[in-house]
Amino acid sequence: MKHQRPLFLAAALAVAALLPSMAFAAPPPRKDAPAPAFSLPLANGRGKVSLAAFRGHPVYLNYFAAWCPPCNAEAPSLAKLARAFAPKGVVVIGIDELEGAKQALGFALKYQLPYRIALDTDGAVGAAYGVYALPVHVFIDRRGRVAYYRLGEMDAAQIKSRLESIARER
């Protein structure tokens, strides 16, 4: 047991290093609450993406990280669903949480993601959305209000159902 203490301490310190940005996450936005505004740099370096630019469109935010196993499991379905719902006016934005452009672009390329990938490198936007673990799914209606919020993995049928819901609302 004596030899396990340094290993436990090292693990505890590693986890603690991640906590400052995530420990102060706000509670998740409530249903029908205005979605927190944001403007984030695009991973490809070609400008920024802001939620305000898509007012009047249904928006799906997918918070992810390249190291996250459930995020990797969802990505192929997200790519297909984003293509299927684009003609219906649904805007999909992937938000890479606490990583850099290299990881975000590698993830997007690996899964051929057809949507914008933004970087939340300091976790501030994620904190406003109550992100303290990944993945997080936020479905926003045309009025800019949160229609559905989910922490944790969703299967393709669940995501499709939520996308259908925000796509048909007027």
Structural features, described:
The structure is a single chain. The protein has one domain: Glutaredoxin, CATH 3.40.30.10. Helix 2 runs parallel beside helix 5. It is an alpha/beta fold. The strands form 2 sheets. The chain has a 5-stranded mixed sheet with strand order 5-4-3-6-7. The longest helix has 20 residues. The N and C termini lie far apart (62 Å). The chain contains 5 helices and 7 strands, in the order H-E-E-E-H-E-H-E-H-E-E-H.
CATH superfamily: Glutaredoxin
Oligomer: single chain
The coarse silhouette is: globular
Global Rg: 17 Å
Residue runs with pLDDT of under 50 for 5 or more positions: 8-23
Number of E-type strands: 7
N-end to C-end Cα span:
62 Å
User: In order across it, which strands form the biggest sheet?
Assistant: 5-4-3-6-7
Please identify, by name, the CATH architecture.
Answer: 3-Layer(aba) Sandwich
Helix content: 25-40%
Largest sheet: number of strands, sense, barrel closure:
5 strands, mixed
Taken in chain order, the helices and strands follow as HEEEHEHEHEEH
Helix segment tally: 5
Question: Secondary structure elements and their pairing?
Answer:
Blueprint: H1 4-23, E1 39-41, E2 48-50, E3 59-64, H2 69-85, E4 91-97, H3 101-111, E5 116-120, H4 124-128, E6 136-140, E7 146-151, H5 156-168
Parallel strand pairs: 3-4, 4-5
Antiparallel strand pairs: 1-2, 3-6, 6-7
Helix pairs in contact: 2-5
